Here is the input.
Amino acid sequence: MTEVTRKIIHIDMDAFFASVEQLDHPELRGKPVAVGGTSERGVVAAASYEARKFGVRSAMSSKVAKRKCPNLNFVKPRFDRYKEISNQIREIFLEYSDLVEPLSLDEAYLDVTYAKKGKPSATLIAKEIKQRIFEKTGLTASAGVSYNKFLAKVASDVNKPNGIFVVTPDQAQQFIDKLEVRKFYGIGKVTAEKLNKIGVWYGSDLKQIDRLELIRLFGKAGNYYYGICRGEDNRLVQPSRERKSVGAENTFLHDLFRTEDLENELMQIADKVWERAQRINVKSKTLTLKFKYADFEQHTRSKTLNGFFDSKMLFISESKKLMKVEGGFEKGIRLLGLTLSNFIYETEDQKPVQLILEF
Here is the structure.
């Protein structure tokens, strides 16, 4: 029996948060916009393409962003609005396929091998979806089309913004060979630098390293790297995804030194995390504290229970214990965060259930 070549589309909205703000506020159109920390100690969550020309990027401190782009317009995020538009986009996806896997509010995979409507061509379906999104929301999206998730994801970034790029099976190896490893989905900055140090800059270089050596260097991720540089990725498009953690963090306007001040902030963060855990009806075995010094040096500490965090009192108590440092912190703290993970789902039969992440 001949194996069917899958048709995978990856849709990625263009500068989604910033584009929504420009859509709703015409006075911001054509101007550099940053969504996120409006204070000097804030962090950029998203940047418009006008801002990116100046080097402004997500996760950049607001202070650095303003220095790079003095005319930058900061806007507070409105996640309810982003979710509203995201849901409209997801409705369009579901018209074409039930196999829709959201990665976040602004991107998703679609398996259109057996599409519910439209042309038999995945490329034509991607173009139609892009047009439908624009007509319904006024926003643009970029699309990548290929026979697996890795290639579709990478392809969607080639002709941004408002572009489409197709990688057919017979073009795949040539495309991968010329692709810089830093642009491989699943290879982060640190791994890319490690590969560069051993002379691996492109897909063609990565393909020269055998599987066992990649596993020795990168653990089980080495298996993934071995496959993707040969165009192999058998992961299915999963219409539902299990949530792995829930958390919250806060960056402070001024560095904090006093234990009392830090505990007050920690309690506010703990309230948010506990409420979110209750909302999705899970209990957790693992608590992680994250803190960042004024010089951006970052640390994490974790506690895993034999049982689980069955009360807010226990959660807060263990959070405070993780934050205690003999003699106090050596430097001022600019960020605190808490995360609960290693979930036990509270269902009738105590079996894990898939949580649908809205797109």
Notes: The two ends are 36 Å apart (CA to CA).
